[in-house]
Design a protein that fits this description.
This protein has 341 residues and is mostly helical. Helix content is 48%, strand content 4%. It folds into two domains: 212 residues, no CATH class; 95 residues, no CATH class. The chain has a two-stranded parallel sheet with strand order 1-2.
Amino acid sequence: MPRRPLSDTWPDLDDDGLLEIRMAELPLTIEGTLALRIEQLREELRLRGLVFPLHFYLSDEWFTPDGATAVAIPFYLAHPRLEKLEEAQMLEVEGGEHQWCMRILRHEAGHAIDNAYRLRRRRTRRQIFGAPSKPYPEFYTPKPYSKSFVLHLDSWYAQSHPDEDFAETFAMWLTPNSEWRQRYAGWKALAKLEYMDTLMGSLRDVAPPVVNPEEIDPLPSRRTTLRQHYRNKRRHYGVDYPNFYDRDLRRLFSDAPELSSHVTAAQFISRIRRPVRRVVADWTGSYQYTIDQVLEDMIERCRELKLRLAVPEEQARQEFTVLLTVQAMNYLHSGGHRLFL
C-alpha cells in the first residue's frame, strides 16, 4: 500500500521522525541557494564560451554518470533542514559552504564536458592525464608533496585516477581569479593546465557531439529510509580497522598517582574534540565523522588506562592535534577517504 504524501510540515519533524522518511518521498527540487550556485557555474562556463548543455538532478551523493552530461547533487543541499540532519549524522555538510560547493560543481562539470565532447578519445589527453580505461582503485595512496597534480578538492584527489586528474585540472582552470599560471609556476601540473587552456579554447562555441541528460539513481528511485542511508554512509566512512594509541597517548597523559588532581585525559580530549576535529579534517581531507571515530576510540582508551593530563594544556592541545593528524593520515593512506566520481 503506497504511503501518503508527506505533510508540508515535514521540516518540523525531529531527527528521529525525519530518519523514518524514505528518500523517494522527500518533496525536493533544485531551487534557492542551490539553484543560484548552479547558475554561477553556468555563467562561468558561458564566459569561457563553453555552451554544452548540463543537466542537474538530486540523488544521494555527488557524481556524474559515466557518459552523461548530467550531474547528481546530494539531496540534503536542497533544503536547510536536511543540511542540519546531514551535519548531525555526519558532523559536516559536504558542499554546504558556498566555495566548497562551487569547487565540487566545477569538478563535476569537468567530468560532464569530458563526456560531452568525448575527450577521452583524444590521444594527447590520454598522454597527458593517463589512460581513462585504468580501473578505479578501491584505495589510493596520495603523495602530498607531488607537484604533478593540481590541488583543488581534499585528499589530493587528482591523484586517484586519470579521469579525476582531468576533472580537477579543469576545475582549477575554470575557477575565477585562480591565477593558475602563477600558482603552479615550476610545477609539472602547469603543463596540464596549459593543455586544458588550449583544449577548452578549441571548444569555444562548439556544439557537443553528446547530449545525454540521463539520471542514474535519482532521488525518487531511492526507496531506503534516511535512517538506513546514514547507517550505510557512516559504515562506509567509519573506522573499521584496529588502532593502538597507548604509546602516543602516554606521551601526553599519565596514570601516575601524583597527577591525581589533574584533569582526566578523557575530559581534556572531549573539551577540545570539536575544534581539533575540524582542524585535522581541513589538514587531511578526511571526513570529520571518520576523525570523530578515532577521537571516540582515544577517549575510551584514556578512560580504560585512567590517564590524566601530564603536560601544560596548550602543549597538550598542540601535540594532540599532531597525533590525531598522523592517525587520520594513516587512515587516509589505508583507503579510508571520500571518492567522487
